[in-house]
Amino acid sequence: MVTSDNLVVLSIHLSIMLSITASWGTWGKEALKEAFGLARAVNVEGDQLRFAIQRGLRPQLIGHVIESQPTSVDDVVNEVDRIHRH
Fold first, then answer.
1. pLDDT in tens, 37-77
2. Angle at Cα 11 formed by Cα 10 and Cα 12, nearest 5°?
3. d(CA 53, CA 14)
């Protein structure tokens, strides 16, 4: 069963992983892979995973990602990648 505690743990984990990286690059993508692994371990998927990932993004990214209105985890990852390329 997915609980709000699971989502909080996932969000915090991703936030910590992304906050220690200076740029997106390989480290940010590795952080997402770790977060996805944690999500699978606590049965978080679909919209719940997308929202948890969004909550874990750095403040300077979250506004841009929300404005893009992502409908999937891939949309979130692609938008973060787009932001970092510009």
1. 777 787 878 888 777 777 777 777 888 888 999 888 788 87
2. 95
3. 7
